[in-house]
């Protein structure tokens, strides 16, 4: 089974890593899908920066995950084709076609698994019927929002490593990211 983990990844955190570890118990491969045009209107850094951070993040954690992890730019491709916003259903349908398998599982954290939130997802009932879901518990409450706030507060690199990986910190520092008020209050 291929696990599909979509998120803003703004930026990727150790909370994301924990969800990946949980999902890896049920998956042969995990595909990380950064959002290009968020269905709930989250404000995010440009896709290219989040994608770059995510590639570094995967490099940093892959040896700790028992299955391969890859990063997909499928949402960016769909955005350039005119999809906006981009819905989970459409991403899963596209990946099913491109990967040639219906053995996909949508990886969900507790926020999206909350019934009130899940009911807001476009075609959520069809997702339930068509694909598997992997529900991850919040075992490490490390949120992107808190990491952005910590950067804006002027935290040291050592402190930031309590929230994310070294490659992500390197991109944040080299690009001067998140120095102002944090983008979005969501993960």
TrEMBL record:
One Pfam family linked to the record: CTP_transf_like
Domain Cytidyltransferase-like: 4-149
The keyword Iron belongs to this UniProt entry's keyword annotation: no
Gene3D superfamilies per the UniProt record, alphabetical: HUPs
Domain of life: Bacteria
Pathway: Cofactor biosynthesis; NAD(+) biosynthesis; deamido-NAD(+) from nicotinate D-ribonucleotide: step 1/1
InterPro entries for the chain: Cyt_trans-like, NadD/NMNAT, Rossmann-like_a/b/a_fold
Reaction catalyzed: nicotinate beta-D-ribonucleotide + ATP + H(+) = deamido-NAD(+) + diphosphate
Bilayer-spanning residue ranges: none
Keywords: ATP-binding, NAD, Nucleotide-binding, Nucleotidyltransferase, Pyridine nucleotide biosynthesis, Transferase
GO biological process: NAD+ biosynthetic process
GO molecular-function term, one example from the UniProt record: ATP binding
Primary enzyme class: transferase
EC number: 2.7.7.18
Function of the protein: Catalyzes the reversible adenylation of nicotinate mononucleotide (NaMN) to nicotinic acid adenine dinucleotide (NaAD).
Family, similarity comment: Belongs to the NadD family.
Protein's recorded name: nicotinate-nucleotide adenylyltransferase
Originating organism: Litoribrevibacter albus
């Amino acid at each position: 089974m291929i696990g599909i983990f979509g998120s803003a990844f703004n930026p990727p955190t150790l909370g994301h890593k924990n969800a990946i570890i949980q999902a890896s118990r049920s998956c042969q491969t995990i595909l990380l899908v950064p959002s290009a045009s968020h269905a709930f209107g989250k404000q995010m850094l440009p896709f290219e920066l989040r994608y770059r951070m995510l590639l570094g993040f995967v490099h940093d954690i892959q040896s700790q995950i028992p299955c391969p992890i890859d990063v997909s730019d499928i949402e960016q491709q769909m955005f350039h084709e005119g999809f906006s916003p981009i819905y989970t259903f459409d991403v899963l349908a596209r990946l099913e076609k491109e990967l040639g398998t219906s053995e996909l599982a949508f990886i969900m954290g507790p926020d999206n698994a909350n019934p009130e939130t899940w009911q807001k997802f476009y075609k959520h009932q069809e997702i339930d019927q068509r694909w598997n879901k992997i529900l991850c518990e919040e075992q490490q409450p490390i949120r992107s929002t808190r990491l952005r706030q910590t950067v804006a507060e002027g935290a040291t690199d050592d402190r930031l490593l309590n929230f994310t990986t070294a490659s992500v910190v390197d991109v944040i520092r080299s690009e001067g990211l998140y120095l102002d008020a944090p983008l979005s209050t969501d993960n």
